[in-house]
Every structure is written in C-alpha cells, then in structure tokens.
Amino acid sequence: MTSQEIQAQYDAFKQLGLKLDMSRGKPAPEQLDLSSALLQQLDGFTAADGTDTRNYGIASGLPEARALFASLLDVPAGQVVVDGNASLALMHDAIVFCLLYGITGHAPWSRQQPVTFLCPVPGYDRHFSICESLGIKMISVPLSDDGPDMGLVEKLVAGDASIKGMWCVPKYSNPSGAIYSAEVVQRLAAMKTAAPDFLLLWDDAYRLHHLSEQKHTTINVLEACERAGNPDRAIVFASTSKITLAGAGLAALASSAANIAWWQRKTSVRTIGPDKINQLRHVRFLKDRANVEALMERHRQLLKPKFDAVLAQFDAYLGGIDGVTWTRPHGGYFIDLVTPPGCAKRTIALAKELGITLTSAGAAFPYGNDVEDRHIRIAPSFPSLDEISQAAKGIALALRVAIAG
Ligand code: PMP
To answer: How far is the centre of ligand 1, averaged over its atoms, from the C-alpha of 37 (Å)?
Structure first.
C-alpha cells in the first residue's frame, strides 16, 4: 500500500466513530460469567474444620483455601497465606514491611537508603508505580523471551548492596509473554547478592493462563532457592483475579517457612482475618487443580480467538514493515507491539483519534521512560471479537501513518 492509500484507509476508519478502551488487561464479561455460579455457591458458612466463616479469625486463610493455592503453586500448604483479593496489595505490603521493619533478622530497608530494585523491561507498570510511590530507585534490565539478561543481573546484584529486590513475572510476562527458562530461575536463585536481604518478588500472575495448547511450566522457584542455599530469597504472589472474578477473587503468597512466619507476625497487626466467606465459596466452586485447569481451558477458548484476530490484522497490515515486530504470546493477557524508534507515542495518539484508547506510551518502563519510544502494550481480552479485530486494524493503520511521517 502507498502512503496515500494508508492515509485514506486511516481517514475512512475515523468515520466509523469507534470507542474502545484497551488500556488495561481486564477479563471480558463472558469470562466473568464463567464464574457466575460462585455467587450462588454458599451452602452453609462452616469450613471443613468447623470454622464459622462469618466470624473473625484465621488470619492466614482457611486451611482448604491454603490447600487449594498450595496445589496450584506446587508448594506445601503451610507455606501459603491466602489474604484479600488483590495480589498487588500483598506485593505492596511485603515491600512496605521490608522498608519499615526489615525481613527476619535484617535491618529495615528504610535505614539503608537508597533502596534499589531491578526491573526487567518491558514490564508491568503497577510494579513500577509501587517502587516510585515508595521512593525505591529502579534499574531496568532487558528481558528476552526466556527471562532477564542474567549476565547483567548477576553483575549488578553482586556489586551493589542497595539492590534489595527484583520484580519477576516468570511466566507469560506482562506485556511480552516471556517465559523464564530453568537456567534463568536457577541463576536467580543461586546468584551472589551484595545485599543479604535481597528478595525476588515472584509475581506468578499468569501461571495457569495458557493461550496455546502447550501448557508451559516454569521450575519451582522456592525449591530452587532452597537448593541454592538461599531459602528465604523469593516470595511468590498469585491470585484468582483472572481465574474467577477480577474484582472479587482471592490472592495468595507463598514463601519459606521463615518468611511466612514473618508475614504472619506483621499482618497480625493489620487484620483480624480475611474474608473467609469468599474463600469458602471459592474452594467450593473451584474444587481442585484439575477443575481450575478445566476452567482455564474455557477462558482460553474465549481469549485465543481474540489474540488470533489481533495477530491476523498485524500480519496483514504490518508484516514485512521495517523495524516493526510483535510478540506471539503462548499465554497471559498481552501482546507487545514494537515500533520503529520514536513511533510509539505518535501511534498511540493517532489510535486515540480513531477512538481506540491504549495503555500510555512508556508504561512498561520504570518512570514511564521507554527511551527509544518503541513499545505499545496491546490488551485484547476485554473487547468483543469483532471489536478487537477492528481495533487491531486501526492500531496497525495508526502505526503505518506514524511511520509514514
Ligand atoms: N501482576 C501482573 C503481572 C498483572 O498483569 C496483574 C494484572 N494486570 C496483576 C499482578 C494484578 O493482580 P491482582 O488482581 O491479583 O492484584
């Protein structure tokens, strides 16, 4: 297509008057409907051990909810806490506790300023917002398909005691879909860190969220850390936000016995117990791992055509264009569209004129700073299949117009 033809198609698209918000990776209503039965679930309030779930208590979560997450995360139930509905809140609290109190046996991070985190990029904007709001300095490290640049990570953590943590989304990462290889996980678990209280914030948000038929696995980070002699290095976070209800699911964390005891001590001050009614109805609805996997297959059936529709439009309109690439994720909620240098912001602005709201440029980088202005996060989950196909064409046209000039 000539640039005049592209411009003409872009102008014609504008006349459609589309209005689509694709800025966040939200489940679509029909995905939420898969868990409607959850809301009718409650058949008595009594948990397996006789606990009246309506009352206070059981701060670490109902035993059956901990057992369910233990089976999903492949960890012992005693090393799991189920608390609240948002894993992001647990990540936030873990970092705040480290800053204020220090993790077992170590001084508070706040007394050891500056505090620095390594941030594989492109990454999840809300991780970076937590760091920014808590005054934690961020250093970007490049993320490839099989994990972060480990040579660089090892060099940085060995030489700088201010590096206290690292964000990791080990499977189907947001937004590139990266899957950490066994070697990467082992190196993260074993690397020498100048900070003795260095933590891997292991955000396993997409552990069960496959898009392809191949169900990828990553090796167990808690076991890898234990084997490497760093048993307290990782805290694993997960939730059912994209399994059941994004606004009313369950969140959990898993770690070494020592870290779990630390978490229990710190959180006993802030709550007398979580919403155990929601925990009980989740356990009754989700039942066991096999049933959760069957539910995830139904999510996959709804999501896969949407991802395929985006990829088909990108293939048709962007295939072979110099400097333009995009990921073909095997799971998760996002596609990372990579533009020629200096084109992402302009593309997002041009898409906005077509009525398509995208995640703001630079969001996948600490401080919102995508130095080369190249990355656009595409979130295909929420719009209908027709809408997403149309929107992908609009985004492709916007990028072609941006490239043309
Ligand atoms: N981590 C990642 C990597 C995510 O993409 C998301 C949701 N977009 C979350 C965490 C949020 O999880 P939760 O709903 O459990 O807070």
So the answer is: 23
**CA separation (Å) from 391 to 327, 342, 384?**
17, 22, 10
Would you list the DSSP string of 391-403? HHHHHHHHHHHHH
Q: What percent of the chain has pLDDT over 70?
A: 100
Q: What percent of the chain has pLDDT over 90?
A: 95
- For 149-203, the pLDDT digits (tens) are 999 999 999 999 999 999 999 999 999 999 999 999 999 999 999 999 999 999 9
Beta bridge partners of 365: none
Mutation test of ligand 1: which of 32, 81, 87 has the most ligand atoms closer than 8 Å to its C-beta? 87
Q: What distance in angstroms lies between residue 30's CA and the mean position of ligand 1's atoms?
A: 19
φ/ψ bin of 332: left (φ > 0), alpha (ψ from -120 to 50), beta (otherwise): left
Atom of ligand 1 nearest to the CA of 333: 5
Per-residue pLDDT, 351: 98
Q: Relative to the CA of 89, which ligand 1 atom is closest?
A: 16
Name the band, by pLDDT with cuts 50, 70 and 90, for residue 42. low
How do 116-121 and 163-168 pair as beta strands? Answer: parallel
Smallest CA-to-CA distance from 23 within 379, 314, 311, 396 is with 379
Give the position, in ligand 1's atom list, of the atom nearest the Cα of 124: 3
Of 252, 144, 285, 259, nearest to 200 by C-alpha is 259
Write out the two tokens for 35. 């868990």
Residue 3 clears pLDDT 90, i.e. is over it: no
Three-state DSSP class for residue 129: helix
Q: Which domains does the chain have, with CATH numbers?
A: 3-25+292-404 (3.90.1150.10), 38-287 (3.40.640.10)
Structure tokens at 367: 């401080």
| C-alpha of residue 206 to centroid of ligand 1, in Å | 8
Check: pTM over 0.90? Answer yes or no: yes
CA atoms within a 13 Å half-sphere pointing along the CA-CB vector of 159: 6
pLDDT of 1 above 90: no
3-class secondary structure for 265-319? HHHCCCCCCCCHHHHHHHHHHHCCHHHHHHHHHHHHHHHHHHHHHHHHHHHHHHC
CB 31 within 8 A of CB 365: no
Give the contacts of 389 (CB within 8 A, at least 6 positions apart).
309, 310, 312, 313
Pocket of ligand 1 from Cβ distances under 6 Å = 25, 86-88, 124, 169, 174, 203, 205, 239, 241, 251
